[in-house]
Amino acid sequence: MARAIAQEEKTRESLVESLAQKLDLSVTDLWILALTAISLGILYGIGEVAARLGGV
Fold first, then answer.
1. pLDDT tens, 4-56?
2. How is 1-56 classified by DSSP, letter by letter?
3. pLDDT of residue 55
4. Does the structure show a pLDDT above 80 at 1?
5. Rounded distance, CA 9 to CA 3, Å?
6. Which of 30, 35, 10 is nearest to 20 (CA)?
7. Given this model, what pLDDT does residue 9 score?
8. Helix axes 27-54, 15-22, angle to 10 degrees
């Protein structure tokens, strides 16, 4: 019983790990892509606010 539980814990993957395997990327690459997308979204939002405040 204890061996089955230990084996199940070993085979369990996190959501990020399974997504990285599906996309054939490393987990680090996936985090870099996600953080890049978030950063671009933040920059876009800042640009929109600046454009509204500037009256463009």
1. 665 566 667 788 888 888 889 898 999 999 999 999 999 999 999 999 999 86
2. -HHHHHHHHHH---HHHHHHHHTT--HHHHHHHHHHHHHHHHHHHHHHHHHHHHT-
3. 81
4. no
5. 10
6. 30
7. 61
8. 100
In degrees, rounded to 5, the angle at the alpha carbon of residue 42 between the alpha carbons of residues 40 and 45 is 110
Residue 8, C-beta contacts closer than 8 angstroms, at least 6 positions apart: none
Q: Tokens in use for 18?
A: 């399974």
Length of the chain (residues): 56
